[in-house]
Every structure is written in C-alpha cells, then in structure tokens.
Amino acid sequence: MMYNQLYQYLLQHHELAIPGTGTFLIERKVAVIDFPNKRIDPPVYTIAMQTRAATPANYFFTWLAHALHIDSREAMTRFNDFSHQLEKQIAGGTTVEWNGVGILSRGLGGEVKFVPAKQQVQEKPITAEKVIRGKAEHMVRVGEDQKTSAEMEEMLNRTETKKSFWWAYAVAVGLLAIMFIGWYFSEHGVDLAATANNKYVVPVQPEPSYKVLP
Question: With a threshold of 0.85, does the pTM exceed it?
C-alpha cells in the first residue's frame, strides 16, 4: 500500500483526491491570542474530507512515480488499484486507520465517514507582552480637524507655558517697586518730612488795577 507516500503528498500540496472515497484537504486555523496567559498560540492544521467525486491532478502521477521510483504509467496503475481497494474495504464495513490523516469507515447511509486525526501543531507558542509606546503618534479629532497626538501635545504645552508665566511679570513689577521705594527712602530719609513737599509757597503779588496820575 502507498499510505505513507500519499500522506507526504497531502502535506506538501494540501489536497489529495482519491476516486471513490473523496478529496482530503488540509485546513489551517489561524493563531489565537491568549490574553490571560500572555501568549500567542500558533496556527494548527487539521484534515478534512469532501465526499464529492474526485480526480487527481495530472502532476500527481509524476510526483507519485518519483516517490515510488517507477514510471508514470505504473504509478497510475498502482494508484487506481489502491483507490479501488480502499473503496471496497470501506463499503464492506472495514474501518481504515490512516496514520496522520484519520479514520475512514462506512456510515449508516452507506456514505464514507471520516474522523480526522488530532490537530497538528507545527510551531510553539510565543510570549506576547503588551508594549506601551509613549511617543507613538495617533490621530486625534479636534472639532472638524484631525491632528496627530504630537501636534496636540505641543499645542497644549504651549498654552500651558503662556498661562504659567503671568505671575513672573507681577513679581518683576513688585521687585522694581520695592527697589524704587528703598532707593527713595535712602536718598530722603524715612521721617515724615521726607515724604512731604519741602518747597515754600510764595504768594504772588497782584499788580494794581489802577494808576496814580502825577
């Protein structure tokens, strides 16, 4: 029998048609993220069978002849004998266990029943830690516009800077006022007279409104 060679062909080409039985297909299930365990489970492969009429591709016999080290005509003859024998065994109630593929048997309605082998995992799980990128840019909607997160951060920092410097001007004016007051008192003293007006008021003599004749 040629079960091993046909299994290798299925692994390489992901499809194998056997007349009288069905077409075997390798189906791939995508990787799954396991959040609680912080890992990514690898893809798994399982084998399914379609019970439709199947005819092998032309290159199949060339491949099989090379695998069995025979010519293509003999490979075709051997494969036809294999498919007829397999069909006969299943129809007669024999359960066929195909290593790596699954179990073939006769169903209640006379159809071919297929139970696939255990799912195959060809890779190992990998650790998946969440990465937080503090400087990663993303789009932010502001009203009718869209800005990047970097632009928004710069704009907010600029506004905050403008607001945070108002007190500096008040402190500067206050220091200048204190310095002026200190200078003034150092020049004029600190008594009451220093703050008063020291100039004397001289009354203005009004000119006579009349003239004396000689």
Answer: no
